Amino acid sequence: EDVSFNYSNRNRMVSIPGFWMDATEITNNHYRQFVNWVRDSLAYKVTSGVGLNNPSDTTAVNWKKAALYKYDNKELANLTGLTYENPLTRKLSIDPDSLIYRVRYFDLPAAAKINKNNSTQKGRDQIVSYAVPVYPDTLVWIRDFSYSYNEPLAKRYYAHPAYGNYPVVGVTWKQAVAFCHWRTHIQNADFAKKKIAVDGDYRLPNEAEWEYAARGGRTSTMFPWGSPYLRNKKGCLLANFKPGRGNYPEDGGFYTVKATAYWPNDFGLYNMSGNVAEWTASYFYEGSYNFMSDLSPDVRIEADENDPPRMKRKVVRGGSWKDVGNALQVSARAYEYQDTAKSYIGFRTVIDLAPKTKK
Q1: Is 213 exposed, middle or buried (0-12, 13-18, 19+ CB in 10 A)?
Q2: pTM, two decimal places
């Protein structure tokens, strides 16, 4: 139901290859592993004399040593640039702004565009590298809502263990991509130790993959649960969103809920609609459905810091705890800017499905 008559999501037949998708949105516990990994790796480099955020640094981290860090005051005092003195408690703490992860990858689309008759261009030189601060923006709970008291969530949502299995929010598109690169690195390092062939890379799903997964194998359903209604036969709401005119807790959740709340769809995926909206890899353009390929369709733009805002729009799917029911439709499209974090946007990852081999 295109209630705003945008005509930006017209029906069309497409085909996509197989992939695996996370059953739930990435939770605070999942994302905290990433942040702690960055913290420990930087702490090791500071103590070993390498320093912080050196683009040419190739020092291998001694993880056995890094695992012994307890981050008490005596140890933190030696981590120049990674710590600061809290002006309220007068204790040393890790500086969230110093937790920076460097993304490095080979740009295949750029390599494919190289003119092979030009000897100055080499495909192997298409390496992209940039730094991403990884700590989530906890102040989004206050920034997103004017004249609203949400300070407790700003203080506790990411830090308190009670919210460990809730979806992480306050992460930008760039931070979600950095998480995917880190997860790929961890997987491939483990495979190398076990002498297992390297599998696909973790990444954000493109728009077509997300919608296919949300439908759960159904071709003409409005919501992931198959029904065209937001309630079941007993009158229970089927997702976490904004029912009616603002009775937020009517569906069982005031803000977000656990990532495994409510029933999964037929693919076993939880909260494909509601709870938090989800970043995708796709660039948002209103008319993209008119020219995309019908074979694994996707439109991507790697926008730089200095590019105009229009080039930084990324497709966001699924609707969230603060959205009305219309946004929960599996075909509904929205967007947010890649360098913007929100209290109602999270993400989940996918990995390409390798073909089966017979023994």
Answers
A1: buried
A2: 0.94
Residues with pLDDT less than 70, the chain? 1-2, 55-56, 119, 123, 358-359
- Cβ atoms of 168 and 34 within 8 Å: the answer is no
| 48 CA to centre of own chain | 32
Strand locations in the chain (E)? 19-21, 83-85, 92-94, 100-106, 127-133, 202-203, 277-283, 313-317, 334-337, 345-346, 350-352
Which tens digits make up the pLDDT trace of 222-251? 999 998 999 999 999 999 999 988 899 999
Give me the residue label for tokens 């308190």.
160
Cα 234 from Cα 251, distance rounded (Å): 13
List 351's β-bridge partners, or say none: 20, 202
| CA atoms of 73 and 317, how far apart (whole Å) | 43
Please state the φ and ψ torsions of residue 123, each to the nearest 5 degrees.
-60, -35
